[in-house]
Amino acid sequence: MNLASDQQRVYEFACTAIREDVARMDSLGIEYLVFHPGSHTGIGVEKGIQNIIRGLNQAITGNEKIMVLLETMSGKGTEIGARFEHLREIRDNAAHPERIGICLDTCHVFAAGYDIVNDLDGVLSEFDHVLGLELLKAVHLNDSMMPFGSQKDRHAVIGGGEIGMEALLRVLRHPVLKDLPFYLETPLDDKGHKEEIRMLREKLA
Predict the structure, then answer these.
(1) pLDDT tier at 71 (50, 70, 90 boundaries)?
(2) CA–CA gap between residue 110 and residue 180 (Å, rounded)
(3) What is the gyration radius of the CA atoms in the chain, in angstroms?
(4) What is the rounded distance in angstroms from the CA atom of residue 18 to the CA atom of residue 58?
(5) Residue 7: closest CA among 62, 89, 78
(6) Rounded to whole angstroms, what are the CA distances from 30 to 56, 67, 158?
(7) What is the pLDDT of residues 1-44, one digit of tens each?
(8) Distant-in-sequence contacts of 127-136, Cβ < 8 A, 24+ apart
(9) CA distance 90 to 70
(10) Quick check: helix, strand or coil at residue 10?
(11) Are 44 and 78 in contact (CB under 8 A)?
(12) What phi, psi does 141 have (nearest 5°)?
């Protein structure tokens, strides 16, 4: 699904999918729908952002209780959302910005060049300046197979990548973040995720 696309068939499919997802999840009482903004595929960031805004305006009526969370992205290829400013522009120009928040993915922001390993406070300060920390509603907790600033989206198991265990524990313990919902997207099956959760709880105790 690519809501930033300029190809009519791709774009119309994405509009239908996000519209149906918002309606279905809202009817189920689900609080958040996390959404990848998309890739502009050569038409440019600004045109891609305008496509995303137009698609979200079709999907969000303003009567929903659900919030659509724009996810921070790694910046691979022509991906939109690797800079906080991209997400700010999308939200600011949406018809119903009150129904749009942000999900921070640790692997993605690290790959995009936000140094959560050595300067987590600085990254959160920049997030607050550009977007406002009140918009941060969820965290995808992932390590990264690829190095800092690589703009490559390759998740690693917790503690098994370039971010490392200690930095991810600082994310979990940070007073601004610790009460948010955290979600694992590490390359493991359900049994492996249960073990990661057990291990993290043990280290946080």
Answers:
(1) very high
(2) 19
(3) 17
(4) 9
(5) 78
(6) 18, 9, 27
(7) 899 999 999 999 999 999 999 999 999 999 999 999 999 999 99
(8) 127/84, 127/102, 130/84, 130/85, 130/88, 131/84, 131/87, 131/88, 131/91, 131/102, 133/176, 135/91, 135/100, 135/101, 135/102, 136/101, 136/102, 136/103, 136/104, 136/176, 136/177, 136/180
(9) 9
(10) helix
(11) no
(12) -95, 105
Write the DSSP string, 47-79: HHHHHHHHHHHHH--S--S-EEEEEP----TTB
Of the candidates 57, 76, 84, 77, the one whose C-alpha atom is nearest the C-alpha of residue 68 is 57
Give the integer Cα–Cα distance in Å for 115 and 158: 17
Domain-wise residue ranges, the chain: 8-204
Question: Do the Cβ atoms of 163 and 116 come closer than 8 Å?
Answer: yes
Tokens of 181: 């919902």
What does the pLDDT read at residue 60?
A: 94
Structure confidence by residue, pLDDT tens digits, 83-118: 999 999 999 999 999 999 999 999 999 999 999 999
Q: Which CATH code for domain 8-204?
A: 3.20.20.150
Q: Report yes or no: 148 and 108 within 8 Å, Cβ to Cβ.
A: no
* 106 contact partners, CB below 8 Å, separation of at least 6: 116, 139, 140, 141, 142, 143, 144, 163, 168, 171
Angstrom CA distances, 130 to 83, 120, 126, 190, stand at 10, 15, 6, 36
Sheet holding 182-184, edge to edge: 32-35, 67-71, 100-105, 136-141, 182-184
CB 123 within 8 A of CB 109: yes
Q: Retrieve residue 127's tokens.
A: 């997030």
